[in-house]
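Re: the 218-residue chain
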Amino acid sequence: MPAVRPPVAPLRGRYICLEPLSPADLPELCKAIADPRVFAGGFGGGSAGYRADRDDFLAWAREYLQFDRCNVYGVRIRGGAHDGALVGTTSLGDFDEATESAHIGWTAYDLRVWGSAVNPEAKLLLFGLAFESGFGRVKIQADAANVRSRSAIERLGAVLEGVHRRDKRRADGAWRDTAIYSVLRGEWPAVRSGLHARLDALGGEPIDYRTVDEALTA
């Protein structure tokens, strides 16, 4: 089938739901991810991109999340004590129907769900949506210096394509190298099986918040 940009609609998993995010949701998102430790991991261009002031954060997020160009989702917990809580955002974007390529990115999570089922299930849902929509290659990338993010990407089963040197500026003005990974349509069944196995190992219990210390060491 030809690649087509999918409609923005809810994607439901066992542990989370990806719901279309709108600018009206940004105050709630601010409470979840406006933390300097989230930005230190590379989100928003790195530590210098952090906005401590709520209004500054909201103005920045309206531009950064590219609502007009990406399928932007809010990540909400399903079930348990925190049912419905917004714990992050992620997007599917950079749609190139001619080359059947798309990009999963613009991702950040509340520290209290780091190391939980949130990220693997979010990736399971978005990779699945992209391949079901006819895309043949889905890119995912990180600052080459961000060991934590690169490790998380590699655990998904994505393949390192290379490092794009001096690719883009961080928020502090320094140039970053970008590590570029991808999953191809033919690789997806194996990657999907690996993600299901990781989620199955969690036993199906709803996501509970970790302490920040637990999250940072997960």
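The chain has a mean pLDDT of 95.
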